[in-house]
Amino acid sequence: MLGQTGGIESMQVDRFDRVMASHARSVMLGMQHVAPQMKKQGFGSIINTGSISGIQAVSAYMDYSAAKAAVIHLTKCVAMELGEFGIRVNSLSPGQIATGMGRTGPDAVEKAAVLRELNKTRQPIPRSGMPEDIAFAALYLASDESSFVNGHDLVVDGGLIGGSSWTERQRMSASVQGAL
Question: What PANTHER family does the database record attribute to this sequence (predicted)?
């Protein structure tokens, strides 16, 4: 469920509750239901879906941003508890990934194509993130290769949360210097 746009004064409480339930409560319930079985077997890997919106404040969708921050923190809290039972709990935080999120049918395909073009210039790696990038990161967290990774939020965003690309930063710096 996508978050609502607008400021805190126009935030609809029932919509806020639905976004929190869809993104944070659902993660808690999922972990609550799999924990007993994983404890019984003595191992497991839980992978939750965060977002870079949960790391950086996204005021345009503050309910979604807050829900994803809750997922990331809840993941770390549960990792501390379940790690003692051989269960690793981590999260993945995608950046801008070219999907049709929030759309269906032809609209989803069109949105993904538009995002592929827009995302090429948004982060230091000059291509759009693809669903496969997230799948490979999840595969790593689920595998034995990550057996000592617990309570970690793996950001998969092409460097987006690090800031502008080097070339863009140089262009902006030159523009500022020229204005001064």
Answer: SHORT-CHAIN DEHYDROGENASES/REDUCTASES FAMILY MEMBER
